[in-house]
Amino acid sequence: MTIRTKLLGVVVMLCAVFCFGMYFSVKHLVDDIVHQLLWKYSEVTTQYDSEKALSTLSQQIDVAKVLSSNENVIDWALDANDPQKQRKAQQWLLSQRGKFAEDNYYIALNENLAFYMSSKDDTKKQSYLRYHLSPNNPNQSWYFSQRVNHTLFGATIDYDYDLHEVKLWISQPIIHNGEFLGIIGTSLDLGPLVPKLVGKQYPGLATIFVNNSGDIELDSSFTSGDFVNHLKRLRNKKSLHQIIHDQKSYDAVMGAMKQQGQGQETKTLVVTLESSGTFVSIKYIAELGWYQVKFVDIDKVLDGNYLKSFSEISFAMFLLFTVLLYTFMSRRFFLPMADMYRHLKRMLPDSQTPHTHDMVADIHHQLDCLDRELFRSRHSLDSLVRERTETLDQLAMIDPLTGLLNRSGMERELNAELARAKRENGCFGLVWLSIDGMEDVEIMDISSHLEQDKRLRFASQALKKVLREYDCACRWADGEFVILIRSNSVQALKALTARLKTEIHYSNDTFVLSFSLGGLIVEPSMSMQDALSKADSALYVAKTKTKERVHIIQPTSPSQRLRA
């Protein structure tokens, strides 16, 4: 297989990965945007529908709250069997009845469980008693449930078997000093109300109202007007669980309802409904104690072929991109690679040139050979440069005649020692030594330069023998040496002088060699110039002496005087 064939395969594979990756990425992005728009749509429509419907219900609930706190109603509820209080309360309720949208009210008293109702269709009656409530009657459980749960208000769509009416019943408890006295409220016809609550239905959209227990109070089927049959059907179906069969989806919806009831915002919620993904938007209607649940079926709302055009364009782009990329890579990579192969083949001997059918492998082998050759050459060159550099450094710091440090080398050592002294608040010794007679004119006239060199080498050998391994000395000038003693004691300087005299006396039997020596203890506050100047002054004093030509400057600080 030639490299061009391999290249074509690689290009096709890369283009396929790129184009399909781009397709699925864009599809995912578009789906995400569409889903977000659907979610926002469901939230906005849910909010709008609930506010539109509640514009009427909120007013009815407020009227019921006012009636429940009236003193006439409370007096009657406290003594339900008192005819005078009953008459007074009913007269006041009749005067307020017109504030309700349907011009009716009802009241149920806890003391005698009597249920009263008055509407605009009633003729004037002495009493509006309709029936008495019984805890054993399941159709009247709404009253006893609200009494036990102390619900602040209630709203339910129900069929009153005694009045033979299906209505939305709004109930407000009558509370006095924390005591439950009964319920007062009104009923609303479902005909004009249900379309406001449920809204216009479209394919893929559905709205239901459920209570805290997950029971369905209202759905889109009520809009057709046959409320009795619809209510019976809802009572048979009853639970939200019978619409959302998937347990996980059901738990998610119930959890979102709980969050809404607590005033928390819910995140995007997608559940499985009839084997398809469905958005669920939930709005808690506190005035009713209901949850408005809107279902948006994604598959039904969106056209399944909305990405067909994009798929066709992506395939055309895939073909075009493949051709362009193959042409580009052939010109930019394949042809230069073949040319590089020929050049490498000429550079290497035949023994190192492979002969396979894989040009890439051959080039790789040739580059490995060149790399090894370059590595060996670079390693040899680095070693040579390192050796030459070390030699130059040594020559730059060493006096060639004596083998001691030269002036530059000693200045480097002094700078380092002064830095250490300042850092550690320590001291060290500095000695300036001069060989006597090196500047004597007679000697210069009689002795040759070789004789002078001999004396200098002899002095340097003596210094090397008496100095410790961590001390150092340098040839500072023609016959002068500077010695760095890493000690803070004057006694160490004197001991050095004694050792040096002994070494010169016993090691030399051909000529007399004497010297003058000046020294001091260098303190951290001194600079290098100060230390050298004082050592030079001490040497000058030593040269003026006749016998012991040694002068050590005594330390100035109390601590150093004690050490001295």
pLDDT averaged residue by residue = 79
> Helix count?
16
Gyration radius, in Å:
55 Å
Q: For the terminal residues, how far apart are their CA atoms? A: 90 Å
What's the β-strand tally?
A: 16
CATH hierarchy class name of the largest domain: Alpha Beta
The CATH architecture classification of the largest domain is 2-Layer Sandwich
Protein name: diguanylate cyclase
Organism: Vibrio xiamenensis
GO molecular function: diguanylate cyclase activity
Enzyme class: transferase
Describe this structure in words.
By secondary structure, the chain is an alpha+beta fold. It has 16 helices and 16 strands. Strands 3-2-1-6-5-4 form a six-stranded antiparallel beta sheet, with helices on both faces. A five-stranded antiparallel beta sheet has the order 8-7-11-10-9. A hairpin with a 4-residue loop joins strand 1 and strand 2. The protein is elongated. It starts with a helix and ends with a helix. It is an enzyme of class 2 (transferase). InterPro entries: Diguanylate_Cyclase, GGDEF_dom, Nucleotide_cyclase, Rev_trsase/Diguanyl_cyclase. Its EC number is 2.7.7.65. It catalyses: 2 GTP = 3',3'-c-di-GMP + 2 diphosphate.
